[in-house]
Amino acid sequence: MESTKVVQALASLAQVTRLEIYRLLVSRGPEGFSAGELVERLTIPGPTLSFHLKALANAELITARKESRFIYYAANFSQMNELVTYLTQNCCSLGAVCDPVCSPGKYLRPKKSA
Amino acid sequence: MESTKVVQALASLAQVTRLEIYRLLVSRGPEGFSAGELVERLTIPGPTLSFHLKALANAELITARKESRFIYYAANFSQMNELVTYLTQNCCSLGAVCDPVCSPGKYLRPKKSA
DNA sequence: AAATTAATTTTATTATTCTGGAAATATGGA
DNA sequence: TCCATATTTCCAGAATAATAAAATTAATTT
């Protein structure tokens, strides 16, 4: 993933309303929600929603598919995975010793001793 | 992780210079780079760097440790892991069927348990 | 073809963020 | 103490982003 695209993707998520939209679409899965359903669920004005959907779609974090009068929006999971890869790769590649630090999820269970 | 903290973390990365700083610190590991070393490597003015470091530090994506006159900045990997967890969790939790969609990186390597 | 419905684009206003020079703070050395 | 070094804070202008009402496009129904 190219760095300007990464910035775009991050910026598209770095906004309360858009993050909410994205999370709702993640929980929904591939079927997606129409713009109207999102307006209802999030109780925000149409133009505002449209503005935010555009940002997420331009960043390719969501996809849009038109079905008759409706436009269904769904999370694009592969783009999120590429983003995560970009953010976590090259850990300690400059040579430092940092074995447990780099691997996500693997070491992070709170210990009783500290 | 709380959603306003998530937005803050995403915003702190959604900027070319800050993303560059963060990635450099990721590649460096726990030892970190001093502000001066970062000014040199990134060729940006001190005040500009300081402004961006503050944003990343407030978001807890990097840590600062003072050592004599120097301040060493290092990536905070556990915060990134929490961020990634937040962004990827609850996939399809609203009931849709979408098994391979949620963890694309994982299904390439078949699980041992059924 | 008119009316209805779904959603977007345009637009103006407001709010926030970025940038870097000049001044300020803090530490260590002569 | 005085000086150099490391870094930050202050400030003001420039740039960018968010909001939502009004106008617009597009598809469907009657």
How would you describe this structure in keywords?
homodimer, 114 residues, alpha+beta, Arc Repressor Mutant, subunit A, three-stranded antiparallel sheet, elongated, disordered C terminus, DNA-binding
Helix content of chain A: 40-55%
Q: What strand order characterises the main sheet of chain A?
A: 1-3-2
Structural class of chain A: alpha+beta
What's the architecture of chain A in CATH terms? Orthogonal Bundle
The count of helical stretches of chain A stands at 6
What does this structure look like?
- The structure is a homodimer of 114-residue chains.
- The first copy, chain A, is of the alpha+beta class.
- The first copy, chain A, has one domain: Winged helix-like DNA-binding domain superfamily/Winged helix DNA-binding domain (Arc Repressor Mutant, subunit A, Orthogonal Bundle), CATH 1.10.10.
- Chain A has six helices and three strands, in the order ααβααββαα.
- The first copy, chain A, has a three-stranded antiparallel β-sheet with strand order 1-3-2.
- In chain A, a hairpin with a 2-residue loop joins strand 2 and strand 3.
- In chain A, helix 1 runs antiparallel to helix 4.
- The longest helix of chain A is centred in the first third of the chain and has 13 residues.
- In chain A, 29% of the residues are buried.
- The C terminus of chain A is likely disordered.
- Chains A and B meet through helix 1, helix 2 and helix 5 of A and helix 1, helix 2 and helix 5 of B.
- Chain A binds a DNA duplex (30 and 30 nucleotides) through helix 3 and helix 4.
